Amino acid sequence: MSDHHAIVTPTPEGFAPHTVAHHYSSHEQEYQSCTLAFWLFLATEILLFGGLFAAYFYYHGVYPETYVLGGQQLSWKLGATNTCILLASSWTMAMAVRTTQLSKKGETLMYLALTVAGAAGFMVVKYIEYRAKIEHGLLPGFYFDPHDAELMGDPNLAMFFSLYFTMTGIHGAHVLIGAALIVWAFFGVLKGKYHSGHYLPVHLVGLYWHLVDLIWIFLFPLLYLVP
Amino acid sequence: MASHADNADGMHHAHVVPAKMLAGVLMALFFLTFITVWVAQFDFGSANMLVAMAIAAVKASLVMAIFMHLRWDTAINNIMFLGSFLFLSLLLIFTLSDFATRGDTSPIYLERAPLVNDTSPEKAY
What we know:
The complex is a heterodimer.
Chain A: H1 27-62, H2 64-72, H3 76-101, H4 105-135, H5 149-152, H6 157-190, H7 200-225
Helix pairs in contact in A: 1-2, 1-6, 1-7, 3-4, 3-7, 4-6, 6-7
Chain B: H1 19-39, H2 48-67, H3 75-100, H4 107-110
Helix pairs in contact in B: 1-2
């Protein structure tokens, strides 16, 4: 390792300077290393949800009528609302990254707050949906106990709801994790740590949030519309 | 790769996405969501899944390229992320082609190869 003084990135007035971690030879290397590592992580997330999608497609092939019946129990309007909420929150997140790059603290805080509001709205709609399912006894697998005679007739419907709850549940967990990360970024911006010279953490949190949106873009038609 | 211009000082220089482009992408995504819902009312039979996934893929491409910045990013980041879809497609192709070629009930599969000294009754697979 070369003997060099700490590398500090250019910092606009009123913000906290960022020192490049000592094991990187330059700021550019720090940025690219961290970004690449994060993309690698996002690739594993794709594989996580991909496995669930594989299960979905397989059982759709075996029991297509079950999927039709199951899909009818879901509200596509609520699903579409959630899709629009997440798309809008992806936009506010992208705007937040942009304003961080431009060192606009107030606007960044606003866009981050709007993104968290989107996450909250999504979870509220999710709660409404789950509550309706639970009230009708449409629970995953072993706990499946429909109150409706028509639904009791299909022995494989429990499997559909196992997949529904697993896929939307794990996705919902990611929404909550993403919201927590955005709150963390919010406080970093508030303290003036993130600006044109150091926007990497906001960028990476943004990537996570866009991934959450990406998953839902595929989940929505598969669960709500195709059946 | 605009984000690595002027690298003599080793500093990372941000590529800022124009606000108009971000807003345009959002409008496109809303429109494609509307199309997704609208198209779902028509029954294309077995192509239903394909149509839904195709529209979702377009939406996903917009999010990846513009919101996630991949369009202006290094090749390796693109390879990493798009590579995961490639491997996922391997999983899906093998799983679904296994499933799609089951259920053959032609006699050759039902016929049991005769064993020496075997007196057990005829079994189907």
